[in-house]
Design a protein that fits this description.
Order of helices and strands: HEEEHHHEHEEHEHEH
Number of strands: 8
Number of domains: 2
Number of helices: 8
Distance between the termini: 54 Å
Largest sheet: 5 strands, mixed
Shape: extended
Protein name: ISKra4 family transposase
């Protein structure tokens, strides 16, 4: 089914044009997007309600009880639509006096995309600046203050924090062993004798100042773990050697082992490339390091 709707018209006079008149302006583009969103949402909701108007059991169309105008805040501006209530079918299949087709479809006055956009931008810049950026680039979604953006950011953050990590195993078949991996650095010692500075600098240009060593331990709780270490670069060969170490230790089945690692950047690829499930366990050292990175990122925005 194709439906054509005239959304809006644009006009440019032929006389006295300037380079700034070429193309749509930002304000015209935002108005166009909002008009298209308005027509799309109304048509989408009408088709959704029409497909559910008839009773599933007897096929009789439900009668209209009342309707009212509601607003929906989207990433492309605020739109208005008609929210209906129908009288329940006389056959008794509905189990209530009235039926609201949008009750479980539009549960909030804001879309999940706009809430995500608030949280995504609110996590990277001050809330007041987020509002200014969105007002500049997107159609207005209504009364979205910096407090609203902050609340959405905090809500999304709490949901992520309290979300349970994805597991491939069920609760009855938890892994038998844990593989803990960490990385350390063996740094090259320098001679502090007088006159050795030039030699140290010359050697430093030809040799690496440190060697990264990946250490892995595997074993069951209460038993002596097996230890494995390697100084080879973090490539596929490293993962192959670590997988071979697990197989030799008797843990070849991926469902028997879970990989435990901290938030170090050097270990993200190592844990991801293994065919075992992984879980992050942050210690206070890495948490403090991440907080310092956040502070360094937002300090220029907060203090200029």
């Amino acid at each position: 089914m194709v439906k054509r709707v005239e959304v809006m018209g644009f006009h440019r006079p032929l006389e006295d044009q300037t380079p700034g008149d070429v193309g749509l302006s930002l304000a015209e583009g935002k108005s166009l997007l909002n008009c298209v969103q308005q027509e799309f949402v109304v048509e989408q909701i009408e088709r959704f309600c029409t497909s559910r108007r008839s009773c599933v059991d007897c096929g009789v169309q439900r009668r209209l009880h009342d309707s009212h105008c509601s607003e929906l805040k989207t990433a492309l501006g605020k739109v208005f639509y008609c929210r209906e209530r129908w009288k329940a079918c006389n056959c008794g299949a509905d189990g209530s006096r009235y039926v609201s087709p949008l009750k479980n479809y539009l549960t909030e006055a804001i879309t999940g995309e706009l809430r995500w956009l608030h949280a995504e931008l609110g996590a990277t810049m001050p809330y007041r600046q987020v509002r200014r950026v969105m007002d500049l680039l997107l159609p207005s979604s209504g009364r979205d203050s910096h407090v609203t953006i902050r609340n959405h950011t905090v809500t999304v953050g709490k949901s992520i924090q309290h979300a349970r990590p994805v597991r491939q195993w069920c609760e009855e078949t938890k892994p038998n062993a844990e593989l803990g991996i960490d990385v350390g650095y063996v740094r090259r010692a320098r001679c502090n004798c007088k006159g050795s500075g030039k030699d140290n600098r010359a050697d430093a240009g030809n040799q690496s100042s440190s060697i990264a060593v990946v250490v892995a331990t595997v074993g069951q709780v209460g038993e002596q773990p097996r230890v494995w270490a390697s100084a080879m670069p973090r490539t596929k060969r490293l993962n192959q050697e670590m997988t071979r170490f697990l197989e030799v230790s008797g843990y070849g089945d991926p469902s028997e082992v879970v990989v435990l690692t901290d938030g170090a950047r050097d270990l993200v690829g190592v844990a991801h490339d293994l065919r075992y499930d992984s879980e992050w366990i942050l210690d206070w050292a890495h948490i403090g390091r991440m907080l310092r990175r956040v502070d360094q990122a937002i300090a220029p925005l907060a203090y200029g």
